[in-house]
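Could someone model adenosine-5'-triphosphate with this protein?
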Amino acid sequence: MDVVPENKPSDFIRDIVTQHVVEKRYPHVITRFPPEPNGYLHIGHAKSICLNFGIAHENGGRCNLRMDDTNPTKEDVEYVDSITQDVKWLIGGWADHCLGLKTGQVPYFASDYFDQIFDLAVVLIKKGKAYVCDLSPEDTDKFRGAPDKPGVESPFRYRSIEESLDLFMRMKAGEFPNGTRTLRARIDMAAPNVWLRDPILYRIRHAEHHQAGKKWCIYPMYDFAHGISDYIEGITHSICTLEFEVHRPLYDWILQQLELPNYLPHQYEFARLNVTYTVMSKRKLLELVQEKCVSGWDDPRMPTISGMRRRGYPAAAIREFCRRIGVAKTENMIDLSLLEFCVRESLNKTAPRLMAVLRPLKVVIENYPEGHVDELDAVNNPEDPSAGTRKVPFSKVVYIEQDDFRENPPKEFFRLAPGREVRLRYGYLITCQSVVKDPVTGDVVELRCTYDPATRGGNTPDGRKVKSTIHWVSADRAVDIEARLYDRLFTIEDLGKMEEGKDYKDYLNPKSLTVLGSAKAEPALSGLKQGDICQFERLGYFSVDPDSSVLKTVFNRTVTLKDEWVKIEKRGKQP
Ligand code: ATP
Ligand code: MG
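Reply:
Sure, complex below.
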């Protein structure tokens, strides 16, 4: 599957890492990918995965997969499992040798370190660098002030170390209800950076944890747990998105106060990925799933990695997309068609070609012998001679695409019409002699054609020209299939630019899914299994969906053959 060349990328973070390698600053380069298991991974995460695993891969290092699981009420093992599967799939065949897992081949968890994190909280209290605060969550917020307004010190800020220690132990023992107390760092309530205004390190949450079970009723905050987890794992470069830039002074403060024996990790930030016609916040994606706007997290319209896999996007194509968009510090919006371009490029080289008809129109070839089947030679992949050829059956009745016929053809329409001749791909030239109409609706339901036996294989011995070659399927041997065609999930490019008072769900595209239940395909298709991808000639790339049964194979259109991206690139709109 790995057909896309993975050229070595370069960006400001890789430059820093290279410099550190030259300086021999660390024994090894160790990065991590730290998702919170509160949803499925999306294409934005793919950017972070490709960056973190890419750096590990290029420097002979490692990238740990770590679940950032400090918020038990929103997390679930379903997400842990899907994230693990998606990461392995995305880096498979490329950087899997860099994947850092715990013994037992399971991910690391921030919750593995809850004991150590707790002990380090005690160290901070003993050093007078943290205190237990009894302010309510509302008052804590109010006292924090705003960037232009200094904060107000908590009345508990100067409580004795002994009292804080005692209260913290009792918090852990479960003596206090949720929201009654927190552990806070004692830093600076007047700091211009509000994250340094005595940030909360621990909060009370009487909730069972998907990994730690019932052991804890206090949980560390992200900022406290993250740096310590990085340190414990020996992470050298802790890479995250720009919204964490303002947290970096806190990240550094925590690690410095603890006077730890080994080298400290450092945090670097890059711009998150935004893609047109979709949303990427896990909260919104969860809402789409819960409100059944889509069939699930892996609905092929979703921007999730599992949705893209189901739709037929190769992992190598997603990685190539991430390579092309690069890594920088300015946020921008990437056109979805670039991703589709990468998918098309990748599949063009690998996908076997078949013929299928999505909206069948019956064609009777009047001068073709009844009951005869001709086995025609067809090329499996013109891009790959080693893919060989196959036989395609031809018989008296075939199906063509409704779109390939017009009773009254407009000027630019060169396909089949009454009195006109076209080539059936790999087959014969046929001429439409007459049409049969539905007596009630007046729709054309059948074409009566003749074929020229001298044109077998699509040749014209007399050199006469036909303007069009169309695909077809033999009715006798056709296999029934269902085809699911997809369009953009949303109707506007940038969901950050909604009209006032509107919700992002108001922009869901009602035509994002078209199900064609009576499509037909050539019999060679029976060799395909779930997840396989082929090209239906002239229609696009299709993948076999897990909804397939022995009765009917269900296909997802992965991507059409038409390339929007090339047009966009010509206009010079994108990288
Ligand atoms: P959300 O805000 O939708 O819940 P998140 O950022 O909280 O997403 P995490 O699970 O915390 O999701 O993300 C794991 C890692 O992936 C983080 O390092 C985060 O910076 C990175 N990441 C998340 N979204 C994007 C994106 N759109 N582009 C690049 N990296 C991203
Ligand atoms: Mg997050």
